[in-house]
Amino acid sequence: MLELPEAHVLAKQMKETLVGKTIRNAVANNHHHDSAWHWGDPAKYGKLLNGKKITDTAAFAGRPEIQAENMHISFIDGVNVRYLAPGKKRLPKYQLLLEFEDGSAICCIVKKYGWIWVFPDGANDDFYYTVTKEKPSPLTEEFNEAYFDSLFHVDARPTISAKAFLTTKQRIPGLGNGVLYDILFNARIHPKRKLETIGDIERGALFTAVKTTLKTMIDKGGRDTEKDLFNQPGGYQSILLKNKLNLPCHACGTIFTQQIFLGGEIYFCGGCQPLD
Fold first, then answer.
1. What DSSP element (H or E) covers 181?
2. Who is most buried in 64, 78, 210, 272, counting CB within 10 A?
3. Cα(83)–Cα(86) distance, rounded to whole angstroms?
């Protein structure tokens, strides 16, 4: 799933690879996917995009986006975006194909679920899209300790968990479950810990972990559980995820744990991240 690190890696790679290319042919939804959603009518994407030149790319939280003159192409959640060099065989099933005049292409495939939006400047007033542009990114100086403390003390109830604080209500757009557990591990905070039990020193550690963990993931080309524009896995080795269960923690030797919490799975080290 696309989260903040992968969005930034993809946006950078697309900027280096696609800017200046002109779309010769855009085809959407050649293979129906029940959990692939589009902005407007995907049958019109060709008319909207054909002949447009790629002018820029950007990442807004967990959303990489291509700008083609006055049109925006935005990818959300489980969309795999892959570059195909000139002469490379096209994939048979996809939710969006952009073929360029030089013979190259990008092919976008929705796996579990995802959104592919094509819309003109100023047309998208979706709340979740707007908030990604309005709130400061953890990668910026605006996302400082004072701002983080305001989220902690003003925006969130003291009785919610650390997991809920970081991943719900769009407090930090782009920070989801995929990156959450490494952040909490680096801060040495259990996912179930209530905010009211987290003191000033731990809160400072959590702020630092949010900033540094996300930056490290981007610097290393994204997480090893996700693939980039060229179908290569990221270089960041995830600490806590399903395939690391029953392995010892590299810091203390405690076996990593999985539990069900808030309707989903959580991962943590009981030695480094005590609940009490």
1. helix 177-187
2. 64
3. 10
Q: Which amino acid makes up residue 126?
A: D
Residue pLDDT, tens place only, 55-84:
999 999 999 999 999 999 999 999 999 999
Tell me if 76 sits within 8 A of 7, measured CB to CB: no
Burial class for 136, CB neighbours closer than 10 Å (0-12, 13-18, 19+): middle
Rounded to the nearest integer, the mean pLDDT of the chain is: 95
Name the band, by pLDDT with cuts 50, 70 and 90, for residue 276.
confident
CATH number of 4-133: 3.20.190.10
The span from the CA of 267 to the CA of 238, in Å, is 12
Beta bridge partner(s), residue 82: 107
**N-terminal to C-terminal alpha carbon distance within the chain:** 32
Q: Architecture of domain 135-269 in CATH?
A: Orthogonal Bundle (1.10)
Higher pLDDT, 242 or 59: 59
Tell me which long-range contacts 24-27 makes (C-beta under 8 A, separation of at least 24): 24/50, 24/99, 24/100, 24/101, 25/50, 25/97, 25/98, 25/99, 26/50, 26/96, 26/97, 26/98, 26/99, 27/94, 27/96, 27/97, 27/99
Same fold, 4-133 and 135-269: no
Query: In this structure, what token pair is assigned to residue 94?
Result: 């996809």
Which sequence spans correspond to the domains of the chain?
A: 4-133, 135-269
Query: For position 99, what pLDDT does the model report?
Result: 98
If you average pLDDT over residues 140-163, what whole number do you get?
94
Q: Which amino acid belongs to residue 208?
A: T
